[in-house]
Amino acid sequence: MIYPFIWMFFGSFKTNAEIFGSQNLLPNSFSFDAFVKGWNGVGQYNFTDFFKNSIMIVVPVVFFTLVSCSLVAYGFARFRFPMKKLLFGLMISTLMLPDAVIIIPRYLLFNKLGWLNTYKPFIVPAMFACYPFFIFMLVQFLRGIPRELDEAAEIDGCGSFRLFVRILLPLMKPALFSAGLFQFMWTWNDFFNPLIYINSVKKFPLALGLRISLDTSSTVAWDQVMAMSLVSILPVVLLFFFAQKYFVEGIATSGLKG
C-alpha cells in the first residue's frame, strides 16, 4: 500500500526519460524544480488558487455534513414519530442509487436554481443532510450508547437539544471523526462532480487543477504532475494519521466511567 506513494515521491525528482526508461526507484539526482514549476501551474492560475478553492469547498461541506447528519441521526435514534420506519427505509434506499442515475436530474435542478459554476451544489446538500451513509453510521453509533445516560440527564433537567449537545455529542466523537475524515477524503479527491458543476478555471479545486497540467497537445512533465499529486494528497494522509486513534476509541464504556 505504501510503495505507490514512495514511487510517486521519488518519481517527482526524475525526468520523463528516467520515469519511462529506468526501473531504478531512486533518481539520478535530487532537485525540487518539479515542485516549484508544478506549483506555478501552466497558466495564470497556480496551485495556491487550487488549494484555496479546495479548502473553500471541503471545510463547509465537512462542517455542515457533521452538523446536519448528526441532528438527523439523533432524531432517528432517540425519538418516536409517525412513519419513522418508512422514512428511515426511504433514506437508506437512496444508498442504492448510483451517481450515474441522479447526476442528470441534479444538474437540471442546480441549473434552474442558478447554482452552476458555484460551490452551492456541494455546500447546500451538506446543510440538509443529503448523505444517508453518514446518517446511517451515526444512527448505529447512537444506538450503541445506553439510554440510561439520556434518562439521567432528563432527571437533571436537560432538554432534548441540551442532552444532545452536552451528553451525546461528546460521546459521538469517534463516529464524527470517522464521518468527517471520510467526507474530507471524498470531497478533497472528488473529480467528477467539480468537472460537471464548475466550468471556470479560477474556481477549479485541486483535482481539476492537476488535470490541467496533463496537456495532451505537448509533452507532459510527469515529474511536475507527480510532485503536485504528492502535495495534494499530503493533507489527507496527515489527517488520517492524526485522527486514526478515534477509530478505535470506545464510547459506551468511556461514557459510563466513574
Automatic annotation (TrEMBL):
Bilayer topology annotation: Multi-pass membrane protein
Membrane spanning residue stretches: 55-74, 86-110, 122-142, 163-186, 225-243
GO CC annotation, single: plasma membrane
Chief place of localization: membrane
Cellular location(s): Cell membrane
Annotated ranges, domain ABC transmembrane type-1: 51-243
GO biological process terms, semicolon-separated: transmembrane transport
Keyword set includes Secreted: no
SUPFAM superfamilies to which the protein is assigned, alphabetical: MetI-like (SSF161098)
The keyword Transmembrane helix appears for this protein: yes
Pfam families membership: BPD_transp_1
Alphabetized UniProt keyword annotations: Cell membrane, Membrane, Transmembrane, Transmembrane helix, Transport
Family: Belongs to the binding-protein-dependent transport system permease family.
Protein name from the UniProt record: Carbohydrate ABC transporter permease
Source organism of the structure: Youxingia wuxianensis
